[in-house]
């Protein structure tokens, strides 16, 4: 199942205030969520600031003028991007036109390097950004995982960007051989006011997390449902969904009656989890929920990734810990029997549960280091 990418309007709308202090570009649900918290805090620190966004509903709720819901059209993988090439080319060119016409004081690019690093390079090449001789400051929040793959991107980032805010304390050192100013602003999942969306409860349901992109959910969810059915076809389970679009994709798989669909924003207690490799897997790891990762993508995309990417793991917690907190089942390895066996160990093996708690504590210590300020403080410093 490959849902069609909606067509972009002919023109992005102009800024309602007639001027723009900050344009935020966040292409995924997680980036939309993190950027929204920063925007809400920034608006308190700098009343009257005018912020526009290519993002999602969280940024709109935080007070940014949403020019286009980019989270509804995000895709991942070479083949998936190729299928939507004309749409993303139109979006890219229209974004450049909008920036050139309305000249925001700064652009904050949030994660999503496939689009955002290209946008930064294009703004430099067109002479719009500071690094290109223009006046628009280019800021980047949430670094690409250069410590895991494509490390040389740090040099093009230093060429194109004015500053970078990172969420892992060790990432500052990754850029020490460049002139790019890098600041650790704390991990958003460990912020004092952050409400985790999941918690561990040995008596709770099984949590199924197929992801936040339509193509990924359509490929991954049937395998998760098969694993649950082989574990216990009557076991209560919860599937979290970030938008009505994703809920429609989930419903198209005809989930059985023991599956409850819950929108993100409500805390879910779970005894075990089967998850894709995205942001929610880190939430689960920090909550100490035992589980496993299952991932499926287009076969050609997978072969290309095997060629280009040399990683021991795809799960963020596994990468950070350098060991499999969540065993990974990729492509054909993600069988119903394998995932069912993982669920059985998660709820029956006391050693597995003890190991998960130890890994949870190590992970939190790794991320819970003091920062000089929040990402909103960092943004405010560049908008003086």
Backbone CA Rg: 21 Å
Topology as a string of helices (H) and strands (E): EHEHEHHEHEHEHEEEHEHEEEHEHHEHHH
Number of helices: 15
Q: What is the strand content?
A: 15-25%
Sum up the overall morphology in one term.
Answer: globular
- The overall pLDDT average reads 90
Main sheet strand line-up: 3-2-1-4-5-6-7
Number of strands: 15
> Fraction of residues in helices?
40-55%
Do you know the CATH topology of the largest domain? Rossmann fold
Oligomer: single chain
The number of distinct structural domains comes to 2
CATH class term of the largest domain: Alpha Beta
CATH architecture of the largest domain: 3-Layer(aba) Sandwich
- Helix-and-strand structural type: alpha/beta
What do we call the CATH homologous superfamily of the largest domain?
A: Glycogen Phosphorylase B
Main beta-sheet annotation: 7 strands, parallel
The termini sit apart by 48 Å
Summarize this, please?
With 384 residues, the protein is of the alpha/beta class. Helix content is 42%, strand content 17%. The protein starts with 21 loop residues before the first strand and ends with a helix.
Detailed description of the structure:
There is one protein chain. The chain is of the alpha/beta class and 384 residues long. The protein folds into two domains: 22-186 and 370-382, Rossmann fold; 198-367, Rossmann fold. Helices cover 42% and strands 17% of the residues. It has helices at residues 29-45, 57-61, 78-83, 85-102, 113-125, 153-160, 171-174, 214-231, 244-251, 279-287, 299-308, 316-321, 336-348, 350-367, 375-382; strands at 22-26, 51-55, 65-69, 106-110, 137-141, 163-166, 182-184, 198-200, 206-209, 237-241, 259-263, 268-270, 272-275, 291-295, 328-330. The strands form three sheets. A seven-stranded parallel β-sheet has the order 3-2-1-4-5-6-7, sandwiched between helices.
């Amino acid at each position: 199942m490959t849902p069609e990418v909606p067509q972009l309007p002919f023109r992005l709308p102009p800024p309602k205030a007639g001027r723009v202090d900050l344009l935020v570009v966040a292409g995924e649900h997680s980036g939309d969520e993190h950027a929204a918290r920063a925007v809400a805090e920034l608006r308190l620190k700098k009343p009257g600031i005018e912020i526009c966004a290519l993002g999602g509903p969280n940024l709109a709720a935080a007070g940014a003028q949403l020019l286009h819901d980019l989270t509804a059209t995000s895709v991942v993988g070479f083949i998936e991007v190729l299928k939507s090439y004309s749409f993303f080319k139109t979006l890219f060119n229209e974004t450049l036109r909008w920036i050139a016409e309305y000249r925001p004081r700064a652009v904050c690019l949030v994660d999503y390097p496939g689009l955002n690093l290209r946008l930064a390079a294009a703004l430099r090449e067109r002479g719009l950004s500071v690094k290109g001789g223009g006046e628009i400051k280019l800021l980047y929040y949430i670094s690409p995982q250069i410590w895991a793959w494509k490390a040389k991107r740090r040099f093009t980032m230093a060429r194109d960007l004015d500053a970078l805010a990172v969420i892992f304390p060790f990432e500052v050192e990754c850029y020490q051989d460049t002139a790019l100013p890098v600041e650790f602003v704390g991990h958003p999942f460990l912020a004092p006011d952050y409400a985790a969306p999941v918690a561990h409860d040995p008596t709770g349901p099984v949590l199924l997390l197929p992801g936040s992109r339509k193509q990924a959910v359509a490929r991954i969810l049937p395998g998760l449902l098969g694993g649950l059915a082989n574990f216990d076809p009557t076991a209560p389970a919860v599937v979290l969904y970030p938008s009505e679009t994703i809920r429609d994709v989930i419903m198209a798989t005809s989930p059985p009656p023991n599956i409850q669909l819950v929108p993100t924003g409500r805390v879910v207690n779970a005894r075990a989890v089967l998850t894709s490799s995205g942001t929610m897997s880190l939430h689960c790891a920090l909550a100490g929920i035992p589980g496993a990762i299952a991932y499926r993508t287009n076969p050609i995309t997978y072969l290309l990734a095997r060629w280009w990417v040399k990683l021991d793991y795809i799960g963020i917690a596994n990468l950070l810990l350098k060991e499999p907190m969540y065993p990974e089942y990729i492509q054909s390895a993600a069988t119903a029997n394998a995932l069912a066996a993982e669920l059985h160990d998660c709820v029956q093996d006391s050693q597995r549960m003890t190991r998960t708690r130890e890994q949870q504590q190590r992970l939190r210590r790794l991320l819970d280091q003091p920062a000089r300020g929040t990402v909103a403080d960092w943004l405010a410093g560049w908008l003086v």
